[in-house]
């Protein structure tokens, strides 16, 4: 009887242990499955976060493009400022004359030409700008040189356009637009209009600045100012208009070859020998070299 009882008890114990092991295994399996699901969930969240981050970075890069210095600009060393729109620089190891692209300032030093109002002021302002920082040149799509062999370029100092400053302050007009479109022409026109509306410097005298050049000469008794941006006394007094022939009458030459025998550098508009047909580039100078 005791033996039978012991066997029964042992049987119940075995059943209990088996059930316990099965429960433990089920719990372990369930825990593993839950852990696996959590890992997968974390992976999915990370992937989603990374994906969204990449998308946001891509969108931000589109909305905010990176700016960089214009690689078309080349540094040069200033030798001297010739006048308001011409300078001499060292470029690629050579001394070069640079004519400012698209702008024109009154004449001060051109042969057979009087000193025009605002010429001295334009030169001084130009010289001031050039000596304020690093000079770089930028060329446009057209001819790199003019008929005199001068470089045609946009001029910058510390990244700021010298042409724009001269136009905005009324020292220069837009001129020599031969091969449009030009990169900065629209901006230059806006700058010129701004100075016109304010009647600054060359635009302060009606009829002085035209689409063909500048009219009039500075009275020799007038003293130009040294202050850039101001309207000087030299700009207020002019002699005879450059459109009026002088008292010596007219001189006739059949062509530029003949004219240059007497006037090697050509003549300006208003000179007795000037003829419009010899001024092919319409710059106010006939037979100039």
Could you walk me through the main structural features you see in this protein, from its secondary elements to its overall organization?
By secondary structure, the chain is an alpha+beta fold. The chain folds into two domains: 74-244, OB fold (Dihydrolipoamide Acetyltransferase, E2P) (Beta Barrel), CATH 2.40.50; 245-289, no CATH class. Helices cover 35% and strands 16% of the residues. The protein has five helices and twelve strands. The strands form four sheets. A five-stranded mixed beta barrel has the order 1-2-3-6-5. A two-stranded antiparallel sheet has the order 4-8. Helix 3 packs parallel to helix 4 (185-198). It is globular.
Provide a short characterization of the protein structure.
Residues 72-205 form the TNase-like domain. This protein is of the alpha+beta class. The protein is built from 5 helices and 12 strands.
Describe the protein's topology.
Blueprint: H1 2-63, E1 74-81, E2 86-91, E3 94-100, E4 103-104, H2 119-130, E5 135-138, E6 151-157, E7 160-161, H3 162-168, E8 173-174, H4 185-198, E9 209-210, E10 213-214, H5 256-262, E11 267-268, E12 285-286
Parallel strand pairs: 3-6
Antiparallel strand pairs: 1-2, 1-5, 2-3, 4-8, 5-6, 6-7, 9-10, 11-12
Q: What attributes does this structure have?
A:
289 residues, OB fold (Dihydrolipoamide Acetyltransferase, E2P), two-stranded antiparallel sheet, five-stranded mixed beta barrel, 5 helices, 12 strands, alpha+beta, 2 domains
């Amino acid at each position: 009887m005791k033996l039978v009882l012991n066997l029964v008890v042992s049987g119940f114990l075995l059943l209990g242990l088996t059930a316990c092991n099965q429960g433990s295994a089920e719990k372990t399996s369930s825990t593993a499955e839950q852990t696996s699901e959590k890992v997968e969930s974390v992976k999915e969240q990370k992937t989603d976060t990374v994906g969204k981050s990449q998308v946001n970075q891509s969108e931000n890069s589109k909305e905010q493009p990176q700016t960089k210095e214009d690689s078309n600009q080349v540094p040069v060393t200033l030798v001297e400022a010739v006048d308001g729109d011409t300078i001499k620089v060292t470029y690629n190891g050579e001394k070069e004359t640079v004519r400012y692209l698209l702008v024109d300032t009154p004449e001060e030093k051109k042969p057979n030409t009087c000193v025009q109002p605002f010429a001295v002021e334009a030169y001084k302002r130009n010289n001031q700008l050039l000596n304020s920082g690093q000079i770089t040149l930028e060329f446009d799509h057209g001819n790199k040189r003019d008929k005199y062999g001068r470089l045609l370029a946009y001029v910058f100092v510390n990244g700021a356009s010298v042409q724009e400053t001269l136009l905005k302050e009324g020292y220069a007009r837009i001129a020599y637009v031969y091969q449009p479109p030009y990169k900065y022409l629209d901006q230059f026109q806006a700058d010129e209009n701004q100075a016109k509306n304010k009647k600054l410097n060359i635009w302060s005298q009606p009829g002085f600045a035209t689409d063909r050049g500048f009219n009039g000469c500075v009275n020799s008794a007038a003293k130009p100012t040294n202050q850039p941006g101001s309207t000087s006394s030299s700009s207020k007094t002019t002699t005879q208009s450059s459109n009026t022939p002088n008292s010596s009458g007219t001189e006739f030459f059949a062509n530029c070859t003949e004219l240059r025998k007497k006037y090697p550098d050509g003549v300006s508009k208003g000179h007795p020998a000037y003829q419009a047909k010899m001024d092919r580039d319409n710059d106010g100078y006939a037979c100039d070299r």
